[in-house]
Design brief:
This protein has helices at 17-28, 50-56, 74-84, 103-113, 174-180, 198-208, 232-251, 256-259, 262-278, 285-311, and strands at residues 7-13, 37-43, 64-68, 89-94, 97-99, 120-129, 155-156, 169-173, 213-225. The protein is an alpha/beta fold and 315 residues long. The protein folds into 2 domains: 7-230, Spore Coat Polysaccharide Biosynthesis Protein SpsA, Chain A (Alpha-Beta Complex), CATH 3.90.550.10; 232-311.
Length: 315
């Protein structure tokens, strides 16, 4: 490896001071030579001690930079990261995650040595349970907590199987992000609104253009799972917003003829789940939670579909 800046590690944060120090420290303590990477903290209009935490570490890491993004929204923050990055590779990590020691090294090696050259890559995301996993929590719901473990071997991902990296651990060639126009600001977290799919939207564009996305299990992170995130209320709210997000995303891709009848379909799916919950046939608590999540998901889909139909608004 040449002694020039290779990769920019970007942490976007909004009032994430509780975990931010740990996230930054994990990027400071990397096996990759310090001159080959930089760490950029994008403060997305935080009102907590985010700035103080980042600035307290500036003396410890000369390759650490802090910047403030006033436009609220995760997509705005991630796009600011693109503007600030000086590396040819950009890797994003959540503020409540922490990286393994070879995290950045593995990404640099993949982009330099894998053939054909990847346009993007992602790694394993393991869950860091802060409280014991509830007995009722369905394993099938771990994906909504950003759990990813596609395989033990590096390989190219298949978008047709809904294989793509999640925002807690994803990387791109910077030039590719610029070509694709960055992250859609109509999608992504905005304050307490759990809108999502900005990553899915970007990877969908890449798939349409035949671009390659690589999976690196060794470039792993651990992602915090708080007591709040394993509460039923959070899961239900998360799935409701996922339904809204999927409809917003769908309207950016589907033709008008494909959009017809979707409200009726969502209503049927909603009714089926409601019926099963009203008349449960010896369902376990975990099965009830899963049905409850599906019900909220289709409710979100239905509400957003009706809203679009009434207002005529489109993303």
């Amino acid at each position: 490896m040449e002694g020039k800046l290779k990769i920019s590690a970007v942490i976007c944060t909004h009032n994430g001071g509780k975990y931010l120090n740990r996230a930054i420290e994990s990027l400071i303590d990397q096996s990759l030579s310090k001159e080959l990477y930089e760490i950029i903290v994008v403060d997305n209009r935080s009102t907590d001690n985010t700035k103080a935490i980042a600035e307290s570490l500036l003396g410890k890491a000369q390759n650490l930079r802090y910047c403030y993004e006033s436009r609220i929204g995760l997509s705005h923050a991630r796009n600011r990261g693109i503007e600030e990055a000086k590396g040819e590779i950009i890797v994003y990590m959540d503020d409540d995650a922490y990286a393994c020691r070879d995290f950045l090294l593995k990404y640099v090696e993949a982009f330099e040595n894998v053939s054909p050259k990847p346009d993007a890559a992602g790694g394993k995301i393991l869950l860091d349970w802060e409280v014991p996993k509830p007995a009722w929590f369905p394993d099938s719901m771990q994906r909504c907590l950003t759990y990813i473990n596609y395989s033990q071997e590096p390989r190219f991902l298949d978008f047709r199987k809904y294989e793509y990296p999640f925002g807690a651990n994803m990387s791109f060639l910077k030039e590719r992000l610029v070509e694709l126009g960055g992250f859609d600001v109509n999608l992504g977290r905005v304050g307490k609104r759990l809108l999502s799919n900005e990553e899915k939207e970007l990877f969908f564009k890449m798939h349409e253009r035949g671009l390659k996305v690589y999976y690196l299990p060794e470039a792993g992170v651990h992602h915090a799972v708080t007591k709040q995130r394993v509460s039923k209320d959070f899961l239900f709210k998360r799935q409701y917003w996922q339904g809204i997000s999927d409809v917003v995303w769908y309207y950016t891709h589907a033709s008008k003829s494909d959009q017809r009848g979707k409200a009726l379909y969502y209503f049927k799916m909603l009714r089926e789940r409601l019926w099963k919950l009203i008349f449960p046939n010896k369902l376990t608590e975990g099965e009830k939670v899963k049905l409850g999540c599906e019900l909220r998901y289709y409710l979100g889909c239905f509400v957003q579909e009706v809203k679009f139909s009434i207002t005529g608004a489109r993303p």
